[in-house]
Amino acid sequence: MAQSKALAKFWITTTEQLQNVLEHERRMQTVAPTKDVRLVHRLVSDLYCRYTQLCRSLERCFDQTLQVQKRAVVQRLLETAQARLLEFGTKLKDIELSEFVYVDGTLQEQHLIPDDVQAVRPCFFPAKRAAELQSLIVGRSLASFGEAGSESNEDSDSEIEAQEEELMPLPTVMKRPVEQRDRRKERLQAALTLITAHEKARQARVRQTNFRLHPDQYYPKPIDEEIEDVPYEFSYRPGRPMLYPVKRTVFNWDFQKKKRNVVDFAYYSPPGWEESVPAVSSQAEKMNTVLRSNAKEEDKSAEKAAEEATRREEAKELIGLNRAATKIQRCWRTYRFNKAQRRMRYERSKFLGLFDDYEPNLQAAHAVEEVHAARSERKMEFDQAFLAAIADEKARILRTRGPAILEDITEFVRAWFRQWYDEAHAFDVIPEPFQGGTVLIVRGETLTPMEYLEQERLKRLAKLMSPAQKKKEAEARKAAREREQEKKRAEKERLREQAREKRAREKKEGKTYDFTEPEFVSNAYLTLEETFERYRKDWAFVSELENLYDLPVMEWITLEKFAEVHQELHGEVHELLKTERELLQMALCKDERMKYKPPKPKKPPRVRGPKGKKRKETVDPTADRSVESIVDELVERNVIKSYRRRTLEEFIGDFNYAAFERRNRLEQDPPPALGEIRSILRSYLFGMGPLLVPKPKSLCLLAPPGSGKTLLLEAICHETDSVLFDLSVDSCGPIERTNMPYFLQLVLRAARLLQPSVIAIEDVHRAFYKKVPPPEQSLDPTKLGTYLFKLLVKQLSPDDKVLLVGTSSQPWLAKVGPMKKCFEKMLLLPRCDYGSTVLLWRYALGRFPTVPRDLDVSALAKVTTRYSAGQILRCTAEVLTIRRRMQFGRKPLQVQELLDHLLATPDGTPQYPVTDKEYEKFAKWHRKVDKLAKQRAKLTRDRQLAAEQPKAKSGAGASK
Length: 960
Known about the structure:
This protein has 34 helices and six strands.
């Protein structure tokens, strides 16, 4: 209940946000037509950012709303809002003449960051397919994508897959085989180890006791050299805490030392030892006492000298100890200071964002995600309960109100029969069901008796007319039709001439932007406003905060089912009363002595095409095939393949933060950054979800080898949970050219049945070769390009969740026209700039847990700016081997090692980045196939010429 109340409050906030966006739309429509492109860019980018925030809020509401009737409203709002967002994105691309658009000015006005307006993966992704279709794919062993063409494909992902395998988390890496454990053998081995330990301990105790009680038998023979004991003493300076805890024990005796030294201890007497004291007389004792006293007096001076020498030695020793302590303290304080400095530099770099060492506590976030996922999974439960409520309500209406409704309809139609007989003495034909049936009679939309009598009068008059009059009437009608057609042609020609004049005027004076034209006030905006207004009227009297259990509104279900029951009963009444009308007509003809003519049955009109022509039904050659047989054949041909679980977030790259100023203020053409590719691809994938959102039919990724094209392709498949169909040249090689049309129809039908689906073609330029290389002539690669557009791309409808994705690393080898025709979007991946290179190095090094996170890679990134992601990942995988990582304790990692590996690989050949000349080949070919790129290049040339003209004039004036 708490979740329902919180979601209701969030929905109220979202409706206020939607109302605010619509108010901005209305305010934009009041702006006068203008030619200022910057003003138009500012207004459109403002609404683009607002719609981005609105779509994120509507996504969350749609994902968490359980009330079925309200979810339908939210879904409609979300579909139209996303369509409107894509329209504004397309308008920005047309204004900036580039697929890469920048709205930094609006971000500053609305206090947002670039991540706030980036396209994200919708929370309702992916679209779920039926369980019986999903079971066709889950239970099969599929070949991995990229295995067949690994030699011809030079992408970085397939090259370093084996080196990254040890770093990838399970279950992406193959697990180690499980070994069977022998529990009985392990228990016996543990028991044997325990018994052996106890036996060794017993023998040690016996040996020690024997050494103590019988040293003459068990001690070894004395050795020649004298064994001197080196006592261990512990001393420390008083008043100072110890650096390390040390055990204060004096070890000065070994129980295995020589026998002659054992008697030095008073507490031990060898066996058989008897101490005998000789008897001494008292006189002798006195003499000894006198001698000793004299000796003491004589040695007093010597003792004083010895004490003085001892004091000097102690003073020297104390001075040495003080010096040693001072040196130790100096070293310790230096170590402490350096450690504090390193910590301070680390904290400062972390604060400035030079590296990401944030370790968030994800427990709360995971708990919230689990709650959201659990609530989202309950949608099916509420849908089933809603369908059950609809069925029960319909059954109740049929049971309680059905007979009365049937009687009312019958009585009304019979009264209509009576009216016709009384006023026209005839019976009109009941309309057919496809025309409306008896519903038209109840509504009063049929022919009245007076109109029928007038038509009959005109028919009688027409029979009395002479042939000349009939010819004159026909000519008048024909002339009227011709005048109407001429009027339409003139109007069409006038509109065409206006459009021609408008294009010429825009070419000469510049385009004029009118915010009231359909390009700004589109159907998506009208639908969004209409849906929101209908929601406000329908839900004005529904308290959403009180509906804590998300129960449906039964009044609306009753009204809807009541109308449906009416419609169904009208169909039943139609057959009954049609027979009754025929009986009445037969009786009337018999009374009037007229010949009865049964009415001719009317056929429903045939569906015609958009231009009024009859739609030509295409013949499907695979109609006799079942879904299981189609999937089996494609799996056997290795067309349906599995792929790695990857996301677009794994495509590492930063944004170009200076592009807005350079493009809009300095009138330059800045290169895009890698991070902007993610947002563009996600905007293309909105239509692959469960909602009806516009999307392109086909997409082609162009980039040098190692740029991550395969990663992006697999990320597209994983984020949309699509079935991957591999139509590369190697997969289509065994198929004959005559069988290609049937094979493509097979793939198209399977892709539609298992949608969402992605049809992937790696190295697509091979299918459109200008000249086929001799080694590939046996494959006949151009047979795929011959039928690709006609039998695959052209057959896709906007509602199909099928996307054709191609990749190419040598597009200049292909024919421009056919390849451009097959792909709606041609996306050229940019090269790595400094920001993206820094992120790539940190990601590559961050995969190894023992590498320090504060490693300075700034200079390394500056040197390796143009290197591809594949080269960087391969470098780290080859340098940071297991042996090198084990040496980190005594030999820390240096940045120089990574640079040296790039400059001198193990085979002695250095690695070079993609040069400007090589990348210019991609850009030149891309300008041929992309309309926006061609226009952008023309605009850049015009600006350069305009900037060079004043310099040329000034130079000519100076020469004169």
